[in-house]
Every structure is written in structure tokens, then in C-alpha cells.
Amino acid sequence: MTSYAVNPQTLKAQVDAALGDMLVSSVVRLDELTIVVDAKNYLQAARVLRDDPRCRFEQLMDLCGVDYSAYKDQPQVGLRYCVVSHLLSVSLNQRVRLKVYAADDAFPVLPSLGDIWSSTNWFEREAFDLFGIVFEGHSDLRRILTDYGFIGHPFRKDFPTSGHVEMRYDAEQKRVVYQPITIEPREITPRIIREPNYGGSH
Prior knowledge:
globular; alpha/beta; 28% strand; five-stranded mixed sheet; Beta Polymerase, domain 2
């Protein structure tokens, strides 16, 4: 028997009813439901989304950070840092995008979802590493993509694109060392060279 995905408006009604006052917003766009909850309700809302029989989102497929400062070249409106999760219900064949904003732009902190979906572990570490979002209660919150001594968070909009230092292994000191960057910044305009009759008939 084939299981068809639920109508997005029906899904919206079910999720809205399950979350009630915890919802900040609930919008269907391009046949996808995106919901926003307040940080203080984040954990409770996640548990409802997993456990409520109308939702049953058993799997967290993805979690990432977003820096909304100067988003789409516009001045920042509202809070800067957001965490976006994509949830899947295999049993009900439905999906939802869950968004939550960290309350403090200077020190973004949100609770970890690790006790609800174990798949958040590396995703939250990545958001911490690249955006500096701290996940309280995470079992092993440390950098996952940059090196141990790295300073800053490279996906923040105000992080320098070229950086100021580079690292290399020093054989004499037998350790990784940092030094001022040696690569001259330059702008490269790609040249496109096509053979005669490129794309034409042979």
C-alpha cells in the first residue's frame, strides 16, 4: 500500500493544534511548512513534534545555524542567530522545518536537542564551530571542522574572508604553528575559452 504525503495545509493545522501557544509563526510556502518557536519553548516544542500522534517526527534530518545580520544585503531586523532543523516523520510521511532564534546576539545560547534526537550531535557541533552558537546540555560541544586553536567562527557574516593568519606544521618544534598570512589577496576573473564550433553539430 502506497503512503502519500499529507497535504501541507492539513499538516499545518495538525502541527498548529499540537504546539498551540508555543508557536511564534507557522507558514506554508512552496508546499513546505516552516514553524518558528520561541527559545524558551524550544525543548518542549521539539518533544511535542516527536511524540504527539499528529506529528510523530521520529527523525531529525538536518540542523544548521544561520546568521541573519545583513541577510540578503538588508539591515538586520530582529535577532541575529537562528537554528534551523528539518524533521521527518517516516510513519506519517511528512516533513517540517523548525526555526528558533537565540535570544542574545552577543552570546547566542540554545538548549541542545541531543536527548530528543541523537542525530543532532555533530550538527550542533558544526553550528557551534561555524557560528558560535552554544548548545547547553550538549554531551561533547567542541569544534568539528576547524582546528583546535582556531579563533573565531567562519560562517559569521563579520568573519574576514581571507583571514589574518595561516597554520603549518613546524618539524623543528614538532607542532602546528601560526604565522601571518603569506598569500596575497587577489581577484580572479575566470576566462572562458571555447573551441571553434563549441556546442555545434559535428
